[in-house]
Design goal:
This protein is α+β, with helices and mostly antiparallel strands and about 100 residues long. About 55% of the residues lie in helices and about 15% in strands. It is built from four helices and two strands. It has a two-stranded antiparallel ribbon. A hairpin with a 2-residue loop joins strand 1 and strand 2. The longest helix has 29 residues.
């Protein structure tokens, strides 16, 4: 999923105008690792928080969270909402599939 930024993001001396958010490439282990990293750092693990969505995006983009936190609010919200919508679609698809299997 490509996200077009309103303002380029500078990362590793490159100006990124789009972010290629590869959420399909993540695994269950990635989510478990994110939860563990948040616990170890003293954060409360909230599966519906901006910090959780940001951590998922960070893992999918291979860009550290502190860099992504510098995005303008509009781009930040596009990014984190894309993660939320992906997760909701995934849960919705799984629920629909279970319903049709009954």
């Amino acid at each position: 999923m490509k996200i077009t930024l309103t303002k380029p993001l500078k990362y590793k001396d490159v100006e990124l105008e789009t972010l290629d958010l590869d959420l399909e490439g993540l695994t269950g282990q990635d989510l478990i690792d994110i939860e563990e990293e948040q616990r170890v750092s003293g954060q409360t693990v909230n599966l519906y928080s901006q910090s959780y969505f940001l951590a998922i995006a960070s893992k999918a983009l291979h860009i550290p969270s502190p860099v992504l936190k510098e995005l303008p609010l509009k781009d930040f919200m596009k990014l984190t909402n894309s993660v939320l919508l992906f997760l909701n679609d995934t849960v919705s698809l799984a629920s629909n599939q279970e319903s049709s299997d009954v």
